[in-house]
Design a protein that fits this description.
Layout (H helix, E strand, L loop, with lengths): L3 E8 L3 H12 L4 E4 L13 E4 L11 H5 L5 E11 L4 E7 L7 E4 L1 H14 L3 E3 L4 E6 L5 E6 L2 E10 L6 H5 L13 E10 L2 H7 L7 E13 L2 E13 L3 E9 H8 L3 H9 L2 H7 L4 E10 L10 E2 L2 E3 L16 H21 L5 H33 L8 H12 L18 E3 L4 H4 L4
Parallel strand pairs: 1-2, 1-10, 2-7, 4-12, 10-17
Antiparallel strand pairs: 3-6, 4-5, 4-6, 5-18, 8-9, 9-10, 11-14, 11-15, 12-13, 13-14, 16-17
Helix pairs in contact: 1-3, 1-9, 9-10, 10-11
Length: about 425
């Protein structure tokens, strides 16, 4: 194809890329989004909890448009459970105000919907196109991308390619010298068809609302031996299905399950409580993918002359008090759009220095601010429900250390007391009581 030229080229139509595209297109900036899939979302996970606070900003979609978007259910209830190889225990809590702007979605549907909105605002989206490299001028400044269709030129490129971060590594933007970095996790997800009435009855939900549960799996019994799993499980309720999944280190999958993620998922679905939640229903979708981990400790170089990097390709996300990766990703897309508009208004140079000033530095501040906001909401919730906070600061220290890359504190287990009105606790079965430690 003949070479094209845009003011901004965005690689990837995930949360970061599409947020940036919407904000820029609404500001009349010529922008092209390049997506490898048949359509945006086609190669993404089957389901997710999507944090939409950045999409709800007036210069992106706005609150009303988010409320009218193609989500599955608004999340009003969250739960955290621990499995130690013998018993599954935990608690859940419902508070719609705490989880405002949080929805369960099916990514093929929701990403496609957001991309169509971006197009309606003037963004161009090129699908079934793979970016295999960056274009540079004689001064080594980024001036566009090379694709399997040809070259596409731009004043600035936003590299939001997703979890694999292949171009980040290929183009030399990894910062760490650790030979094992960047570290990757194995993600597995399955969508299970379930009647809506069963969802609302089983999870004690008002009609149309969603529950999102996280499960820490420390050990498990496999062929009468103890396996060191150290993985996270999750369960999200959609309109008429449940998204069920696992995330674990690649080495653990290889060691304990011979690399067979199908067998691991079947083991997970066989746990007593998971079977009760899913009702042994029919699977409608299944997928596995590699996820970039490491967080701030393995953060790549985020800006260069004519380039910014964002989204899952950076490995940035929050794990406490519940996983949040779409929130930081959309925040990066929003920040990138703001930086581009500011540079266009004051100069014509998308230099590394300007992108550091207007994108990278605010990103570090914003990430800490997101963490502080999440913790503040968590504290407010506990106070509203009369819970004691004496032992909560250790969790705050843990999150601070995660963000800054410091060693994690040692945490002693303690019982969480809660009121019966807003919380429910899974009671161990007779079998589980034999070894509940």
């Amino acid at each position: 194809m003949a070479s094209w030229k845009y003011d901004v080229v965005i690689v990837g139509a995930g949360p970061a890329g599409i947020t940036a595209a919407i904000a820029l297109a609404k500001a009349d900036v010529p922008v092209l989004v390049i997506e490898a899939g048949v359509f945006p979302g086609a190669e993404n996970w089957s389901g997710a909890v999507y944090f939409t606070e950045n999409l709800a900003q007036p210069d992106v979609l706005g609150e009303e448009a988010v409320r009218n978007s193609a989500y599955e259910r608004p999340v009003t209830k969250r739960g955290f459970y621990i499995y130690n190889g013998h018993s599954l225990v935990g608690l859940s809590y419902r508070n719609p105000a705490t989880f405002a702007n949080c929805y369960t979605v099916l990514r093929p549907t929701y990403d496609h919907y957001l991309a169509e909105l971006a197009k309606s605002f003037g963004a161009h989206i090129l699908t079934e196109t793979t970016v295999d490299g960056l274009l540079r001028d004689e001064n080594n400044h980024i001036i566009g991308v090379h694709t399997d269709r040809g070259s596409i030129y731009a004043d600035v490129v936003f590299l939001a390619e997703g979890d694999a971060s292949q171009l980040v590594s290929k183009e030399g933007y990894e910062r760490t010298i650790d030979p094992g970095a960047p570290h990757f996790l194995q993600g597995i997800k399955e969508v299970i068809e379930v009647d809506p009435d069963y969802i609302e009855h089983t999870f004690a939900l008002p009609k149309g609302e969603a529950a999102a549960f996280e499960i820490l799996l420390r050990n498990g019994s496999i062929h009468n031996r103890t396996a060191n799993l150290n993985m996270g499980g999750f369960l999200y309720t959609n309109k008429s299905s449940i998204s069920l999944g696992l995330v674990l280190p690649l080495d653990n999958l290889s060691k304990e399950f011979g690399g067979d993620h199908n067998r691991l998922m079947e083991w997970f679905k066989g746990l007593t409580e998971v079977k009760r939640w899913t009702n042994n229903s029919r699977s409608t979708a299944y997928g596995a993918k590699i996820i970039r981990g490491g967080g701030f400790r393995e953060l790549p170089q985020l800006v260069d002359n004519g380039l910014a990097i964002g989204g899952a390709a950076t490995g940035i996300g929050l794990d406490f008090p519940y996983p949040n990766f779409t929130g930081p990703a959309t925040a990066m897309g929003h920040l990138f759009a703001h930086a581009i508009l500011e540079i266009r208004a004051t100069s014509t140079s998308f230099s590394r220095a300007r992108l550091e000033e207007l994108y990278e530095r605010p990103l570090h501040v914003a990430h800490v601010a997101i963490a502080i906001h999440v913790l503040a909401v968590n504290v407010r919730y506990h106070r509203q429900n009369g819970r004691k906070l004496e032992k909560r600061p250790i969790a705050f220290v843990g999150l601070r250390n995660q963000i800054l890359g410091f060693p994690q504190p040692r945490v002693r287990s303690h019982r969480i007391h809660s009121s019966a009105d807003d919380h429910s606790r899974i009671k161990p079965t007779a079998r589980e009581n034999r070894c509940n430690h």
